[in-house]
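As a warm-up, study this chain.
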Amino acid sequence: MKVLSMIQPWASLFVLREAKYETRSWRTHYRGSLAIHTSKKIDKDVSSHVAIQALLGRHGYTKENLPTGMIIAVCKLINCLKVIENHETSAVLEDGRIVSGNDFFLGDFAVGGYAWEVQDMNMLDEYIPAKGKLGLWEYDL
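Now compare it with the structure written out below.
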């Protein structure tokens, strides 16, 4: 299965569907099953932001109990859309979609970057310890 590693708290916010898109500087043509892996790194500055703490708190998480070094969810990657405009509080994707609110706040919608869209996000009942890698990588679930 293809796996994408993400830094915390971004990984948990994405898996918990607080963020609709995962933003990347690179495009993938891959579509299909995708596992979400949390890197060992936690962005402590972001995790200390009051809005991020509130979003995590809605699901019982704090910066102290975020899972790291684990595959925590599986989903289906259905789209990878280029960001064509950024208006500081909203962005426009190549298909004309406008991203705003928490979806914009929780991503990096720099022009030329990509918004990865998934569906059928399922958090695993038991997380799988794994060492992450850059880019999309393979793991035999």
